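Forwarding the complex inputs:
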Amino acid sequence: MTGKLPGNHETLVQSLLSGSRRAAARMITLVENQSTYTNELMKLVYPHTGKSMVVGVTGAAGSGKSSLITHLIRKFREKGKRVGVVAVDPSSPFSGGAFLGDRIRFQAHALDEGVYIRSMSSRGYLGGLARSTSDVVRIMEAMGNDVVIVETLGAGQDEVDIIHVVQTCILVLTPNMGDDIQAMKAGIMEIADIVVLNKADLDGAVNCLRNLEATMHMAMTHKDCGWAVARVIPTVASAPKTEDLQGIDELIEAIRAHQTYLHESLVIDRIQAKRIEQELSLVFRDEVEKFIFKGLSGTGKKRQYIKGILEGRTDPYSVVEEVLSTFLRV
Amino acid sequence: MSQGQSLKKDIDGTCDVNWDDYLKSYYEKPESAKTWSGHEMKELYTPDDLANKDYKTEIGDAGDFPFTRGIHRNMFRGRYWTRREVVGIGSPADTHERAAFCFEQGGTGLNTIADVTYEMGLDADHPWAQSEVGLTGVNVTSIKDMETLVGDIPLDKVSWSLITASTAAAATMAQYVAVAQQKNYDISCLRGSIQNDPVHFRYCGFRPACPLDLSIKLGADVMEYCTRSMPKFYYTTLNMYDLREQGITAHQEVAYGLGIAMCYIEELLRRGLHIDDFAPRFTFYVSCHVDFFEEIAKIRAARRMWAKLLKEKYGAKNPRSMQFRFAVHTAGCSLVPQQPLNNIVRIAYEALAAVLGGVQSLHCCSYDEPMCLPTEKGHLQALRTQQILAYETGVTNVADPLGGSYFVESLTDKIEEEALKCMKEVEEVGGMAEAIRTEWLDRKFESEAVLRQKEVDAGDKLIVGVNIFNSDAETKTPLGVQRISEQSALKQISDVQELKRTRNVAKLRETIERLREDAACGRNSIPAMIEATKAMATTAELLGTVRQVMGYSYDPMEIIESPFN
Amino acid sequence: MNTEEIKVIISKVGLDGHDRGAKVVATLLKEAGMEVVYLGMYQTPEGIVKAAIDEDADVIGLSYLSGEHLVYTPKVVNEIRKNGLDDVLFVVGGSFPPEDVPVMKEMGVHEVFRGGSLTESIVDFIKKNVRGKG
Amino acid sequence: MSKEGLKQNSISTVPKTTGSVPFQNLSGFDIKTSYGPEDISQLSYERDLGDPGQYPYVRGIHPDMYRGRLWTIRQLGSLGSPIQANERIRQLIQMGATGISICFDMPTIMGRDSDDPLCRGEVGSCCGVAIDTIQDMRDLLYGIPLETISVNFVSNSQSSVILGMFCAVAEERGIPLEILTGTMQNDVLKEYQAQKSYYFPPRPSLRLTMDTVTFCATRLPKFNPISISGYHIASAGANPVQELAFTLANGLTYVEEGIKAGLSVDEFAPRLSFFFKTHNDLFENVAKYRAARRIWARKMKEQFGAKNPRSCLFRVHTQTSGSALTAQQVLNNIVRTTLQALAAVLAGTQSLHTNSYDEAFSVPTPRSEKIALRTQQIIAFESGATLTADPLGGSYYIEALTDQMESECYRYFKMIEDLGGTVAAIEKGFFQREISDAAFKYQRSIETRERIIVGLSEFVEDEETEIELRVNDPEFESQKIAALREFKNNRDQQRTDGQLEEIRRVCASQENIMPTIIEAVKSGATLGECIGAMRKEFGTYSEQVIF
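Prediction (whole assembly, four chains):
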């Protein structure tokens, strides 16, 4: 380990809890890289999480998510809240590399100690959220951020897993998205708590607005009906002239309203539970797999199984059954 | 054989040659049959390639529509192209000293170039400016600076080229005129030019200073003002060169350049000017890159396209409106810091291409530009290069000496064809203004630039010293390095602060108010700027006021508030 | 360390807005498999280093053009040292006289890539010299 | 910035004269303001131009020109001792040169040995190698696989002996002469017209040349025995059209002589090659080459009835103009050389030497030589000038100029014919007079500022960029002489003397001299001794002085 941070986990977590961005940054890296310490660290971090407001912002590339978020940050900062931002960008399927450009939009907060921004690559993980996002959010919570904003690329239905991490999910649409709109309707609109039509100054905005609101109710029926997305909020998040900005206050208000609803209706508890459930299954999946492959390693069994399946003597399902019965004595 | 033995000792190991490789290189041939811009070239061009081409209408003599062969019948016999070398470094005083000396030498043309802080529209005392004032040119903050810059140089005897490209050009114009009027010159007699192409300048790193609508407004303000009040002044040098430096191809350079030109033209027409009122004063700045013939063809194509555009699209009647008047800057991005003296070679034939293309004004890069601001020696070498071309090579004897060449004429057609495609593409995204607003053009520049680098990485484009014959790395610049002292800049900053303390604020506010009104009512802002300048308004104050009216932050860097709110 | 675990900050500093080179390098490093955080133009030394901290970056890459490199490099190095990012690789690219290469290295730049550098050379240097974070 | 710098930098330094060139090119043709279709209305593409690789080859001798193969990058420059010269060759090749060219020091050029009293202080001079003996030739060619590599010898009056040594070394190595490739400049006629390094009267000299030609035709079929050189004619002051006319006239003379010597034209004409100079006037230069190709092709076919197309090819090596370089503001010479090199490429040269920027006042330094080489490489790999054959073809100006060059050239042919042919014209001092007149006219035009040479007649600077000089090794001469002594002491003197006697006998006869020379150098006879033996028979020559 480098000279850059205290070596042992306790001190690392201590400095995290005291709000050290260095500690947070390093810990996020460890989690991202699935380092061997991850579990140990998360054990220490976990107790200090779950108290922050977690807001998700999702939408297609170029829909202006970052620009919206920078305004949200500004508003939250005006209220004196500490803000953490996780901005997830897709990794290149070819090189595995990623171009993380969101920070350009957050430049206004470049020097603000009360804002912690972290860009993440999806590292090929489907669903717009990097595999480790939920852990990263926990770390940001533990760091003492009152608000954690999660920005993800809404590619379509596989976006759905954002709801397991965030409490309030904002879906950002733009006019003239053509067929993408359909995908949105069919897919992630179902997970949206707040729908925003950004770039509302573009031609066709009005029609688009009408269509969207028409489809809202349909979408709502799929959801917990206590909260209805009354309407679509038209916004203009990026304009060279401040006077041309639109809908920011309305958006903030909608977020507040939704949060109030969550807490009053205690739906928040269900969401927290869902989130934990999701985490559990993720951790299980990983750990059980690790556990089993560890057990298999050296025995040469794994190769035999694969060979067997190849030659049609058996199939994955039978194999898993067999393995589980031996390892877990079910 | 004693000597033979000693010889063996001498040679073996020292410098051993692989004779097979040598033979390979002996039979070497060019890898690619493509031009720099990627056009596949035929092995041979013959009369068949020009078969269905009518000389009179398609090519035309030099001086005749469509001016493919040049805008003057007698080309360089009338006069040589202007050999411009830019002056302007450090404080206004430094710059004046150099300019004044050029004038004493009988110079009739002066160039002064703005530094980044001035182009950004910042006063010398702006927090962002302080460490950079005077680094790459000169900052003119107040009329005082312009007075110092002009000094006693008689403005009616000199053609002054003011190289300010961004929206700050409006301030420069105002400051120049203000000084001229205070010195009782009849401004309608002033000759010279101002670069004034804010739209393109957003792509040169001055986006905060050059939002699209503000750029078109102020750019057009200067153009309109000159057209009405300073008929002898060239009010814009539309900068295709900077676009090319982004990494785009020859035909894109022409297409996007003309596209931006159309933004201004349409604004000026909207303001009720007739095309022939102003078009004759429209000038361009063109690049000359390393592909010799392609650049010549590009220039010829641009001339023809401009002529047709002005005649057919804008209904120009005056032939002078249709003449593509241009200066060339040899391509800075074609030079490399490896084996720097090789750049003299590149510059030499890039400049030749410009001359064969019939250039009106030429600026040769200094061979040391990829390393530092041009040194005196570098400048001089660049100037000598032009002089050798002018006086020793005989290439100035004939207008368009390549005219008729099967290859050059075909390539000219090819570039025109490709450029027209690009312009159509722009049409399809809703015209140039839309292409800029939606950042379509940004994306174009980015992808093209990456492409260029990949071509070099992959060796599809060869650059001597970079991806071939790149054995040796040099540790020193052959003829030394240009450095700038920060002293003069510091003086200028304190002067500005002093000025702001001591000026008559009441008078200032009046003029700023008028500027605000004019801008608000969509009137031309230059006259008000001139008055404000005379009342000691600074560059940032002039531009900031208009910015606010247009709904932008007073300060492009968004850290200073207007003192007039 | 896997390439995608190499996190690079690419930025301009000061008023010079010639960002073409920075963007090209950022794109090509991404294509070489790295995670590139692009900060764009008009950054301050403080802002760049804060970003490097938040992102737990392995590399800071600055692009210069207009002779401002000797002005800003010391300021950035100073910020890096002040924040103890001593394991972060600091590289710069752009137009410099060869004479300034040793000068900047003296100031604390790890490597200097002058115009005409091939992407490969940049990628190789980073891969060879970047320090793992365990 | 210094005042001086300001002055030089100021755009004001424009010449006092109005037009640089009085709208005449170097050949003195009046150039029109512009050229259009009407100027080439008489031109028939098929008859007068033809595609590249097609008769009359105006557009180039190969159909694909540089796409097939780049020109040979052939940088001169040897150094005093054969050993160093051999090393230089290797260095140049490693820098990317693709041709080997060897030039000789003054004593060798004058046919004398290093120990000749007349040569004190000259040994290893003018960037040339000193060759006295076969041993020197061995050292010079050490490690160069002559089976595959072609070597160009910039050798003239001494060519028979140099060729003899070359053959002798090859035989020692067991290489059959038939496969040897390379070029011998070996153009004596221009020596009398311009270069003035001859030993004997013109006719015996010409006979020696023809002996090498016939010898090569039969024994070294792949070797170019003559490179007919306009370069020196131009360097002596001839203008471009004179260079063109006199060079071709010499070429035609060699052809006539070859036929007289009993060869059929197609037996040796395919091996004749040429050597031109590119000067500053770009288009005139290109026209010169294009005209040369057309004239040569037609002459060979129509006058000499050549059947083999290769006999009709005007194959040319080019050197940029050393005399156009100035000792002032030396870096300007990079610019000049670049433009000249580009001109040569646009003209379709087969091979090119670019001068070093410091050549005007010193023996090139490694740095200047490298830039000269890079100049060619940049044009070859960056400029795109290689993309298509004869890129200027069809240009109204270039085609009109080509025609004008051609007709002027024929006018000179007529004059020479009227004087009784080339040799007679030499003896009458015709060429010498023409050339010195042209040189005078050119010099005048510079002094009267009609022509401007940047840094020389205008834009003069006081301050000069410091430049490194390459210093010749002062020890070298004495060492060389010592080595020669040792060599002579170790040879079989009687055998040598016999062979020298034999040379003299053959000179008196009609026999071909080459076999005898080969035997002589093998026996240890030195270059000076061989020439000396010939001189006894042929006598010496001194031309009437031309004012």
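Residues 3-86+98-116 of chain C form a domain with the Rossmann fold fold (CATH 3.40.50.280).
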